[in-house]
Structure formats: C-alpha cells, structure tokens
Amino acid sequence: MAKSIREAMTSKPCSIDADKPVSYAAKMMRDEDVGLAPIVEGERLVGVLTDRDIAVRVVAEGRDPDQVKVAEVASRDIVTLDPQQDLDEALRLMAQHQVRRLPVVEEDGRLVGVVAQADVAKEADKGRTGEVVQQISR
C-alpha cells in the first residue's frame, strides 16, 4: 500500500479552540457527524476531544458542559501522523494505540487533516484492514 496519508485524509477538519465550552464542541461534533474534534491554539494541535471524552469526563462526572472548557477534558497525549507517511503506518499506529482516528500534522504542529479507520479501509488491503479492526476493538 503506497498511498500517502495526504491522499486519504480529510483535509481541513473542523477544529475547536481550547477555550471553547464542551457544549460547543458537542454541537459541532453532532453537526459535522464526527467522533473526534481536534483542539487547537491558533493552527497548532494541542489535544483531541472525542465523544467518549465528553461522556466519561463531563457527563458521567455530572459536570456542566456549558462551564467546562475543552482544554480541561481533552486528551493531550496525542498520536499523530505526518501527511507524507503511508497508510501502512496509519494502520500500525491505530492498532498499537487502539484508536480509530488520527490527527495529521505538519512538522510545525499545524493541523492539516484527520485520517480515520474508514479512510484507510477504502484504500488498504482488506485482509490487513480486518486485522487492524480486530486489534483496535480488543
């Protein structure tokens, strides 16, 4: 599989400023039909917020999503890809870290896209993709 991440990723994903409330993020994620929102300061990726983060770190804790800022609950230990890497590397990282979506950043930390398991599955070998899906779902 020689295709690059840049060829398969969603370019210019909707991102959220770190100081926005979680309620804003949840509405954006609903409207965009996405499960991951990259958190940025300027154009630089500083974290990611998932629908699961909202459920576990806000709703389950009884916190007010209008008062909690995304920076407070976003994951900051982020696994990213470079747009020049190939899809095999995306599959490897998804399996290793058990994630379905990875932000794509330039060397300077600027967010340029997101690659999802579904994006890779469209381009990848079906057998390899099946193995990765099993590893992610463990």
Q: What would your notes on this structure say?
A:
The chain is an alpha+beta fold and 138 residues long. It has helices spanning 5-8, 22-32, 51-59, 70-73, 87-97, 117-123, 126-136; strands at residues 10-11, 16-17, 36-41, 44-50, 101-105, 111-116. The strands form two sheets. The protein has a three-stranded antiparallel beta sheet with strand order 1-6-5. Helix 5 (87-97) runs parallel beside helix 7 (126-136). The longest helix has 11 residues, at 22-32. The chain starts with a helix and ends with a helix. The mean pLDDT is 87.
Looking at this protein, list some descriptive labels.
138 residues, 3-stranded antiparallel sheet, alpha+beta
Secondary-structure map:
Blueprint: H1 5-8, E1 10-11, E2 16-17, H2 22-32, E3 36-41, E4 44-50, H3 51-59, H4 70-73, H5 87-97, E5 101-105, E6 111-116, H6 117-123, H7 126-136
Parallel strand pairs: 2-3
Antiparallel strand pairs: 1-6, 3-4, 5-6
Summarize the structure.
Helix content is 41%, strand content 20%. It is an alpha+beta fold and 138 residues long.
Order of helices and strands: HEEHEEHHHEEHH
**Radius of gyration over C-alpha positions, nearest whole angstrom:** 15 Å
Question: What oligomeric state do these chains adopt?
Answer: single chain
User: Total helix count?
Assistant: 7
Strand content: 15-25%
Strand order of the largest sheet: 1-6-5
Low-pLDDT windows of residues = none
Largest sheet: 3 strands, antiparallel
Backbone structural class: alpha+beta
Number of E strands = 6
